[in-house]
């Protein structure tokens, strides 16, 4: 159990080391206009724009200062649609528990408002929680494990939300009410380290934040995501305060 838990923490803690969507495909360019990159001289986590001033990411991606890159598709090619905005506030959830990767959600306030256009658009927060079986899209940048794919281009993967029973059986004693599992128990498709903080979008709503898991795309170890729907009151009150 100690080795398993250590491996889980490695996935969350070393977000910048080996980022990849496993088993996905290149997103249609700018089809995920809410997707942002957290950047401190390099991409290290993802996030989601939820209004012109605020981004949602994972608390384990915390850095006191960073730039937010919006409107990007190919990380190594600037096409003029990108916006790079420094942060003004970085606010992890007050009940974030790093040793459990619990309540793994964070708000980031931009130092100036994003310009909303066809390349940069906010994603709606959920008004209710998504149910098991709902198909969702997770996205992120990085190594794809597919030599035919350009790993610098934003990758997308469609995944189903799994039942609480399947999630608990995959990670006995480790799943809290602030988490859900999504993906394929047979393995082969998953989000991974540098995708951390990125969106899980279900029916046009931000239902999840990429958080942790055992390895990447391993059998019987699906990805674990922060359950955004239980944090909407905290997010709305925090955004109204700062």
Walkthrough of the structure:
By secondary structure, the protein is mainly beta. The protein has 2 domains: 33-122 and 232-241, Trypsin-like serine proteases (Thrombin, subunit H); 123-229, Thrombin, subunit H (Beta Barrel). The protein has 3 helices and 15 strands. The strands form 3 sheets. It has a 7-stranded antiparallel beta sheet. A 6-stranded antiparallel barrel has the order 3-4-5-8-7-6. A two-stranded antiparallel ribbon has the order 1-12. It is globular, with a radius of gyration of 16 Å. Residues 1-19 have low confidence and may be disordered.
Q: Describe the biggest sheet? A: 7 strands, antiparallel
Task: State the low-pLDDT regions, or none.
Answer: 1-19
Reported CATH architecture of the largest domain = Beta Barrel
Order of strands, main sheet, comes to 2-10-9-13-14-15-11
User: What is the average of the pLDDT values?
Assistant: 87
Alpha-carbon Rg, integer: 16 Å
Please estimate the helix content: 10-25%
CATH topology call of the largest domain: Thrombin, subunit H
- Kindly report the name of the CATH homologous superfamily of the largest domain: Trypsin-like serine proteases
Instruction: Report the CATH C-level class of the largest domain.
Output: Mainly Beta
Strand content range? 25-35%
Question: Structural class of the helices, strands and pairings?
Answer: mainly beta
Enzyme class: hydrolase
GO cellular component, one term: extracellular space
Domain Peptidase S1: 21-240
Catalytic activity: Preferential cleavage: Arg-|-Xaa, Lys-|-Xaa
